[in-house]
Specification:
alpha+beta; Ubiquitin-like (UB roll); Creatine Kinase, Chain A, domain 2; 9-stranded antiparallel β-sheet; binds adenosine-5'-diphosphate; binds magnesium ion
C-alpha cells in the first residue's frame, strides 16, 4: 500500500510497533471491586451505628444523617489515601453526554506551616463546582443561583487511576440552588421513584400483600470502533467530530460478513483485557466481548445492574474505553457513524423492573397469578410506547445518532414495539375478546392462559425493531453508542409509571362495578389493546412498506431527524407526563429542550466548518497539484507527438469546480444565524446544512477516487479499518 509520506510513516509505525504484552490474567477475587469503597469495606471501618444509619440511607433512600457524614468522610479519605489518592472529585453528569468532575486536594495547610489531609462531612456531601460552564438551558439565569453537587449515596465511591495520579471519585447529583435538575442523574432517580410508587400501587391492587420498593435495571451493550492513533491523528475530522467527514469506501467493506464473531485481533484482545481488568477493579461486571459486524468494530456488555448504578458504570465504561485505548495506541470511537457505508454503533439498553418480593415483573411467570401480573406490566409498556413514542424518539435524538437511525442497519426512526409471536398472539386474543391460550399453552379456569414456555430463542428476535421484548426485558435498540443511558431510562421509567397509574385507576373502577379481579385485568388490557395496538409490530422495520404502513395506516410518527424529534419535548402531553410524575418540572424540561437543541445546532455547525476547511486546505490542494502534474504530462506528451487520455484530468477539474461551488453554498448556509426560533434553526441545520455537507463530501470522495495515492493527504478507509 503506498501513500503520501505521512500515511506511509503511520503504516510503518503501526506495523513495526512494539507489542504490548498480554496481561497475565489476574484472579478475579484479587481484582474485584478493589478500587470501590464498598459496603463491606465501610462496615469494616465504620462504627456500628454509623454504618447502620448509612446502610439505611442507601437501601431505603432515607435522608443521610448529617452527623454521620463526617465519620464516613474521614473513613473514606483514609481508604482513598491508602490507595494512593491525593485528590477527591465530585463526579456528575451534566446535560451533555459527558462525565464531569472537579478535583480538589485533601491537603489543608496549617497555621504553623505544616499540612494535614482533611475531608469533612460537608465536603463529602456537597460540592460547588463552577457550574457556569455547563449547559443549563436558562435555568440558572432565571433563578440566579449557582449549581451544587450532592453525594448520591446509592452509587458507591471509588478511586480512579489516570496518568495524573489517583483520585477519589464521589458520584453526585448536580442541581441548581433552587433544586432544579441540571444533570442526567437527578431525573433518573426521580423516575425510578415514580415508577416504584406506581408499580407498588398496582401490585397491591393485584392482591400482593407484601410488596417491596421496585427498581429499574439496565444492561447496556456498547459498540465501538478502534482506529490506530497514527491514522486518527492525521484525520482532523476523526479527532474533532469523532467521524469521517470525507472518505471513499474501501474495496473491502463488511460485505463478506467475516468480522462478526470472528477471532478478535491479538492487539485488540490485549486492549480488551486491560479494559476489563480496570472495570473489574471498579466493580463493573463486564461480561461479554466480541467483534461486531463492521471491520474494526467491537462490543462490550456488562451484566445488568440497578439503573442508577448501571448508568454511572456505563459512563465509566465509555471513559475507560477511551482512556485505555490511548495507552494501546488506538483511538476509541464511540460515535454512532464514524464511517460511511458500513454499520454504525449503537447501545442496546436492556431494561426491566423488579423488586425483592415479586421479582422481575417483565418475566412471564409459571402460574396464572404471575402471568396476569406479567401481562399487566407488559400492557403498561405497550400503552406507554404508543402514547409517548415521540418522547422515546426525542430521548435518543442527537446529531450523531441521526446518521444511524433509519439507515437500513439500525432501527427506523419510527417507534414501535416488538413482542414476539406468542405474546403478540395473547394480546390479540385479549383484544378480540376470545382468550384461548397460545399454542402449547393451556387455558386456566379463570380464562387466563398460562404462558410457561416462552420462546426465548434468538430466532424469535427481531433485529429491525427499535424496541423489542427479549424474553424477560425490553431492549431499546435505537439508543446511540455515544449517549448516556440515563435519558432513555428516564423516559421508559416515566411512561411506565404513567401507564401503571392509569391501569390502577381503571382497575379500581372496574372492581368497584363488581367485576372479579382477573376479569377486570383482562378488561383493562382489552382497552389498552383497542387504543394502542397500532404500536405493536413484528415485521421488517427496515422495509419501505413498513414506513408507509406505520405512518399512513397506523398513525405512528416517523421523525427522521433530531430537528423533527426534539420539539416533542414541548408537547403538552409530554410536559404533563413529566410534571405529573414528579420527574421534571416544565421549566426543567424546557431547559433540556434548549440544551439539546443547542448541542445539535453546534455539532452540525462545527462539522460544516470542518468540512469547508478540510475541503479547502487538504483536498483542493491535492487535487490541483495532481491536475497540474497531469496537465504537464499531457502537454509534454503532445509536444513529442503522443496523445494521453484526458479523462482523469477532466474528472478532477469537474469535481474540483463542483466542490468549490458547494463549499461556497455551505459557507453561506453555515453563516446564517438569524432564525425566528430554535426549531427553525434546527430545521435549517438538518435540511440545508447537512445535505450541503454531503454534497461537498461527494466531490471530495470523487477526487479521492481519481487523485494519485501518493498525493492523497488523508488516511484512507482501508487503512483505518484494516491496519491494526
Ligand atoms: P444479546 O443476546 O442481546 O447480545 P445478552 O444476553 O448478551 O444479550 O444480554 C444483553 C444485556 O442484557 C446484558 O447486559 C445482560 O446483563 C442484560 N440483561 C439480561 N437480563 C436482563 C434483565 N432482566 N433486565 C435488564 N437487563 C438484562
Ligand atoms: Mg442485545
Amino acid at each position: 500500500m503506498s501513500g503520501n509520506a505521512l500515511r506511509s510513516h503511520a503504516i510503518d509505525q503501526i506495523t513495526n510497533r512494539e507489542k504490548l504484552p498480554p496481561k497475565l490474567p489476574s484472579r478475579l477475587e484479587e481484582l474485584w471491586s478493589v478500587d470501590v469503597f464498598t459496603l463491606t469495606k465501610m462496615q469494616a471501618c465504620l462504627p456500628k451505628d454509623v454504618f447502620k444509619s448509612l446502610k439505611k440511607t442507601i437501601k431505603e433512600g432515607t435522608k443521610l444523617d448529617i452527623s454521620v457524614s463526617g465519620i464516613v468522610a474521614a473513613a473514606m479519605k483514609d481508604w482513598a489515601i491508602s490507595k494512593g489518592a491525593l485528590y477527591y472529585a465530585h463526579v456528575f453528569y451534566p446535560m451533555t453526554n459527558i462525565t464531569a468532575e472537579k478535583h480538589d486536594s485533601f491537603i489543608s495547610p496549617q497555621s504553623d506551616g505544616s499540612v494535614i489531609t482533611e475531608f469533612t462531612g460537608k465536603l463529602l456531601v456537597q460540592g460547588e463546582p463552577d457550574g457556569s460552564s455547563f449547559p443549563n438551558g436558562g435555568i440558572r439565569d432565571t433563578s440566579a443561583a449557582r449549581g451544587y453537587t450532592a453525594w448520591d449515596v446509592t452509587s458507591p465511591a471509588y478511586v480512579m487511576e489516570t496518568d495524573n495520579g489517583v483520585t477519589l471519585c464521589i458520584p453526585t447529583v448536580f442541581v441548581s440552588w433552587t433544586g432544579e435538575a441540571l444533570d442526567k442523574k437527578t431525573p433518573l432517580l426521580r423516575s425510578n421513584a415514580a415508577m416504584s410508587k406506581a408499580a407498588m400501587r398496582l401490585l397491591k391492587l393485584l392482591g400482593n400483600s407484601d410488596v417491596a420498593p421496585l427498581n429499574s435495571s439496565c444492561g447496556a451493550e456498547q459498540e465501538y470502533f478502534l482506529v490506530d492513533s497514527h491514522f486518527a491523528h492525521a484525520r482532523p475530522d476523526l479527532l474533532m467530530t469523532g467521524r469521517t467527514l470525507f472518505g471513499l469506501s474501501s474495496a473491502k467493506g463488511q460485505q463478506f460478513e467475516d468480522h462478526y464473531f470472528g477471532a478478535i485481533p491479538e492487539r485488540v484482545q490485549v486492549f480488551m483485557q486491560d479494559v476489563e481488568e480496570r472495570l473489574y477493579r471498579l466493580g463493573i461486571p463486564a461480561k461479554t466481548r466480541h467483534n461486531e459486524v463492521a471491520p474494526g468494530q467491537f462490543e462490550i456488555a456488562p451484566v445488568y445492574e440497578a439503573a442508577n448504578v448501571a448508568s454511572d458504570h456505563q459512563q465509566m465504561i465509555m471513559t475507560l474505553l477511551r482512556m485505555v485505548a490511548k495507552k494501546h495506541g488506538f483511538i476509541c470511537l464511540l460515535h454512532e457513524k464514524p464511517f460511511a457505508g458500513i454499520n454504525g454503533s449503537g447501545k442496546h439498553v436492556n431494561w426491566s423492573i423488579g423488586n425483592s418480593t415479586q421479582g422481575n415483573l417483565l418475566d412471564p411467570g409459571n402460574n396464572p397469578h404471575e402471568n396476569i401480573q406479567f401481562l399487566m406490566f407488559c400492557g403498561a409498556v405497550i400503552r406507554g410506547v404508543h402514547k409517548f413514542g415521540p418522547l422515546m424518539r426525542a430521548a435518543i435524538a442527537t446529531a450523531s445518532n441521526d446518521h444511524r437511525l433509519g439507515a437500513n442497519e439500525a432501527p427506523p426512526a419510527i417507534i414501535s414495539v416488538y413482542l414476539g409471536s406468542q405474546i403478540e398472539a395473547v394480546f390479540n386474543q385479549i383484544k378480540a375478546g376470545n382468550l384461548t391460550g397460545v399454542p402449547d399453552g393451556g387455558l386456566m379456569k379463570l380464562g387466563v392462559p398460562t404462558l410457561p414456555d416462552f420462546d426465548k430463542d434468538a430466532g424469535d428476535r427481531n433485529r429491525t425493531s427499535p424496541f423489542a421484548f427479549t424474553g424477560n426485558r425490553f431492549e431499546f435498540r435505537a439508543v446511540g453508542s455515544s449517549q448516556s443511558v440515563s435519558g432513555p431510562l428516564v423516559s421508559l421509567n416515566t411512561i411506565l409509571a404513567d401507564s401503571l397509574n392509569w391501569m390502577s385507576d381503571e382497575l379500581t373502577a372496574e372492581i368497584a362495578k363488581g367485576t372479579k379481579l382477573e376479569k377486570a385485568c383482562i378488561a383493562v388490557l382489552k382497552t389498552i389493546m383497542e387504543q394502542h395496538s397500532a404500536v405493536i409490530f413484528g415485521g421488517n422495520g427496515y422495509s419501505e412498506e413498513w414506513h408507509k404502513e406505520a405512518v399512513e395506516s397506523r398513525g405512528l410518527l416517523n421523525l427522521p431527524t433530531t430537528a423533527d424529534a426534539l420539539p416533542y419535548l414541548k408537547d403538552k402531553a409530554i410536559v404533563e407526563l413529566f410534571e405529573k410524575n414528579g420527574v421534571l418540572s416544565p421549566a426543567e424540561l424546557e431547559s433540556r429542550f434548549e440544551v439539546y437543541s443547542e448541542q445539535y445546532i453546534k455539532v452540525i455547525e462545527m462539522e460544516a466548518n470542518l468540512v469547508v476547511s478540510m475541503a479547502k486546505t487538504s483536498i483542493y490542494p491535492a487535487a490541483v497539484r495532481y491536475l497540474a502534474e497531469l496537465s504537464n504530462a499531457i502537454a509534454a506528451a503532445k509536444s513529442v507527438g503522443l496523445s494521453l487520455d484526458t479523462n482523469t484530468a477532466e474528472n478532477i477539474a469537474s469535481w474540483t469546480k463542483k466542490m468549490t461551488d458547494k463549499i461556497g453554498e455551505l459557507e453561506s448556509a453555515a453563516a446564517k444565524h438569524d432564525f425566528d426560533s430554535t426549531e427553525a434553526h434546527m430545521q435549517h441545520s438538518a435540511k440545508v446544512i447537512r445535505p450541503l455537507m454531503d454534497a461537498v463530501r461527494e466531490c471530495g470522495d470523487g477526487l479521492e477516487y481519481e487523485v494519485a495515492d501518493d498525493l492523497w493527504p488523508l488516511p484512507k478507509y482501508q487503512e483505518m479499518l484494516f491496519i491494526k
